[in-house]
Amino acid sequence: MTILSEIIEFNKTFVEEKEYEKYATTKFPDKRIVILTCMDTRLTELLPKAMNLRNGDAKIIKSAGAIVAHPFGGIMRSILIAVYELRADEVYIIGHHDCGMSSIDTEKTFGNMIERGVDPNIFSTLKHSGVDLEDWLRGFNDVTESVKSSVNQVRNHPLMDKKVPVHGLVVHPATGQLETIVNGYEANEDN
């Protein structure tokens, strides 16, 4: 049996037994917050529990490293939509210790791509097209600095409401302990 068939089989029972009813909510976050965090599997259930969040409390955006890499990319668009269309009044950027993005070896990643069938000529084609793959895939050295950088990207975005607090936190992926790196309320008072 494949993973897909297992999922579909489970889903059929889930729907028939109306298990979805206990998750009923609206598209608007009850706590009026949007969270950008890492896609790390250790955070899937741990982070919401560590923050006392239930289904429907927050908009949660996940990406590798919780990085806002481009001011007009999909991550920033999602944050802006959450604020302007989905009633989020605060933004939380939450990185974590022991993040895979802190140890990305781009040459190794390229090797993995080739091993899985990517034509090596694609790399030079992209390079000649102006795509800097190493920069695009690069992670970070310090999670605290990465969180601060993403907070600054969001806070200083020309389309962001300057009254919206943008917080930066780091979570420990084993314990769920949160460390405040940037208190968005204080940062707004300073400006």
UniProtKB/TrEMBL annotation:
Q: Note the CDD domains from the entry.
A: beta_CA_cladeD (cd03379)
- Which metal ions or organic cofactors does this protein require, according to UniProt? Zn(2+)
The record, for SUPFAM superfamilies, names: beta-carbonic anhydrase, cab
User: What are the protein's UniProt keywords?
Assistant: Metal-binding, Zinc
Q: Which SMART domains match?
A: Pro_CA (SM00947)
The answer to whether UniProt assigns keyword Glycosyltransferase to this entry is no
Record's protein name: carbonic anhydrase
Organism source for this protein? Sporosarcina saromensis
